C-alpha cells in the first residue's frame, strides 16, 4: 500500500502552527505533521503532513485558503518508512544536525528537531526515510555533531483507521461532552444534565482529547459541582475556546471573555462559539495575556483559565494577581508534571494558595485561589 505526504509553504510561525493543528484534526487524520524552515522564503515555513491514505484534496484546498498557505502538493510514496532518532544537548546543535540530515542524498522526506520537555536541555532530532538509511553516514553525522548514536527502525504496520477512531472519539469530562460533527448523533442522545460542546475536527486545537484541556474541564466541573458560580470569567490563550464555552454554557448570566495571541485562533474561537449557539455570550479578543483594554475593563475576575505553557504561565503570574479578584480561582495547565512545582511556587509567591492539582499522564492541571 502507498503512503502520502501533503506539503505546503506558509509565512509566519503562528500561522504555520495553527495550520498544523488544523491538519491534525482532519479525517482521515495524518500520521504526523511537521514544520520546517523554508530556505527559499524569508520567514517562510514548510508544513508537511504524512498520511496512510490519500487525503481529501478539497479539504486541503480549504485549509490552505483559510490559513493563507500555498496550495498543497500531494505526493504518493512507498509504504515502507524508516526512522532515525537521536538526542543531543542544545537548540543550535540540534538544528545544525537537522540541516545536515536534510542535505543527505537521498534526502529524508521529513526532519524535525524538538526540545524534550523534561528540563534536561536535550533535543530530539528525527528523520524519516522511504528506504533504509545509510547507517555509517548517520553514525558519522552523530559523532560530528556530538549526538548519541542514531536509533534506526522501520515503522510497523498500524491499523490507522482504528487509531483515528480512538483519537477522535468524544471526550467525557464530568458534565461536559466534547465531540466532533461526526459524533453528532451521540451528542443528541445525551441527557439534560450533560453539556455538549462541538469542536470541528478540521480546525480545532484544544479539543479536550489532550490531557491539559481535559484536566481543565474536569477541574471546572468539580468546582461547579461544589457550588462555584463565577460571575466574570476569562479564558487566556483560548485556542478553540472550549473552556470559555464550557463556562458560558453553565453560567448563563456570567460575563465570559476568550482571548488568544494568535488572530487565527481567535477566528477559530469565534467559529466554534457560533457552532455551539453561544453568540453574544462570549467575547473573543486578540491579546497577549491580559494586554487588552477590554480585559482590564472587565476585571476583577472570579475565574481565569490559562491553558498555555510553563514559561508563559510563570510570566502571567503578576498580571494574574492583578486581574483576579480576592477569593477568585485560576485553572492553569499546559505544563508537565515535572514543571508543576515551579509554576505553583510562582503563583504562591504572589498571593495564591494551591487548591488542587490533577495529573493526567505527563500533564498537570493546577487550581489556585487568590488570597
Description:
With 371 residues, the chain is an alpha/beta fold. The protein has three domains: 3-77, ACT domain (Alpha-Beta Plaits, 2-Layer Sandwich), CATH 3.30.70.260; 82-154, Alpha-Beta Plaits, CATH 3.30.70; 211-370, 3-Layer(aba) Sandwich (Rossmann fold), CATH 3.40.50. 33% of the residues lie in helices and 32% in strands. It is built from twelve helices and 18 strands. It has a seven-stranded mixed beta sheet with strand order 14-13-12-15-16-18-17, with helices on both faces. A four-stranded antiparallel beta sheet has the order 2-3-1-4, with helices on one face. Strand 17 and strand 18 form a beta hairpin. It is globular.
Radius of gyration: 22 Å
CATH superfamily name of the largest domain? Vaccinia Virus protein VP39
Largest sheet: 7 strands, mixed
State the name of the first-level CATH class of the largest domain.
Alpha Beta
Proportion of residues in helical segments:
25-40%
Strand content: 25-35%
What is the CATH topology of the largest domain? Rossmann fold
Number of strands: 18
Output the helix-strand order: EHEEHEEHEEHEHEEHEHEHEHEHEHEHEE
Q: Unreliable stretches, pLDDT < 50, 5 or more residues?
A: 158-168, 201-205
- Name given to the CATH architecture of the largest domain: 3-Layer(aba) Sandwich
**Total number of distinct structural domains:** 3
- What is the number of helical segments per DSSP (H or I, 4+ residues)? 12
What would the average pLDDT be, to the nearest integer? 86
Shape: globular
Amino acid at each position: 500500500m502507498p503512503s502520502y505526504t501533503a506539503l505546503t509553504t506558509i509565512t509566519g510561525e503562528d500561522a504555520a502552527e495553527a495550520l498544523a493543528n488544523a491538519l491534525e484534526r482532519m479525517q482521515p487524520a495524518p500520521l504526523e505533521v511537521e514544520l520546517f524552515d523554508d530556505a527559499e522564503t524569508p520567514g517562510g515555513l514548510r508544513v508537511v503532513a504524512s498520511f496512510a491514505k490519500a487525503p481529501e484534496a478539497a479539504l486541503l484546498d480549504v485549509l490552505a485558503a483559510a490559513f493563507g498557505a500555498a496550495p498543497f502538493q500531494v505526493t504518493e510514496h512507498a509504504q515502507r518508512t524508516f526512522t532515525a532518532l537521536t538526542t543531543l544537548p542544545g537548540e543550535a546543535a540540534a538544528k545544525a544536525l537537522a540541516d545536515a540530515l536534510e542535505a543527505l542524498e537521498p534526502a529524508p522526506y521529513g526532519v524535525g528537531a524538538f526540545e524534550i520537555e523534561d528540563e534536561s536541555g536535550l533535543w530530539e532530532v528525527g528523520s524519516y526515510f522511504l528506504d533504509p538509511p545509510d547507517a555509517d553516514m548517520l553514525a558519522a553525522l552523530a559523532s560530528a555533531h556530538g549526538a548519541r548514536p542514531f536509533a534506526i527502525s522501520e515503522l510497523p504496520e498500524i491499523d490507522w483507521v482504528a487509531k483515528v477512531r480512538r483519537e477522535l472519539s468524544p471526550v467525557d469530562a464530568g458534565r461536559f461532552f466534547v465531540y466532533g460533527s461526526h459524533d453528532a448523533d451521540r451528542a443528541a442522545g445525551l441527557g439534560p444534565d450533560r453539556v455538549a460542546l462541538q469542536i470541528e475536527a478540521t480546525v480545532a486545537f484544544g479539543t479536550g482529547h489532550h490531557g491539559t484541556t481535559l484536566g481543565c474541564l474536569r477541574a471546572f466541573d468539580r468546582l461547579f459541582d461544589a457550588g462555584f458560580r463565577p460571575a466574570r470569567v476569562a479564558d487566556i490563550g483560548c485556542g478553540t475556546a472550549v473552556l470559555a464555552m464550557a463556562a458560558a454554557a453553565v453560567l448563563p448570566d456570567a460575563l465570559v471573555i476568550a482571548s488568544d495571541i494568535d488572530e487565527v485562533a481567535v477566528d477559530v474561537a469565534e467559529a466554534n462559539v457560533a457552532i455551539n449557539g453561544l453568540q453574544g455570550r462570549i467575547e473573543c479578543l486578540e491579546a497577549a495575556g491580559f494586554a487588552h483594554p477590554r480585559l482590564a475593563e472587565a476585571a476583577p475576575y472570579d475565574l481565569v483559565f490559562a491553558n498555555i505553557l510553563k514559561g508563559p504561565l510563570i510570566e502571567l503570574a503578576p498580571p494574574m494577581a492583578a486581574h483576579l479578584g480576592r477569593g477568585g480561582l485560576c485553572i492553569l495547565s499546559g505544563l508537565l508534571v515535572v514543571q508543576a512545582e515551579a509554576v505553583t511556587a510562582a503563583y504562591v509567591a504572589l498571593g495564591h494558595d494551591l487548591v488542587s492539582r490533577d495529573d493526567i499522564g505527563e500533564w498537570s492541571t493546577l487550581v489556585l485561589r487568590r488570597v
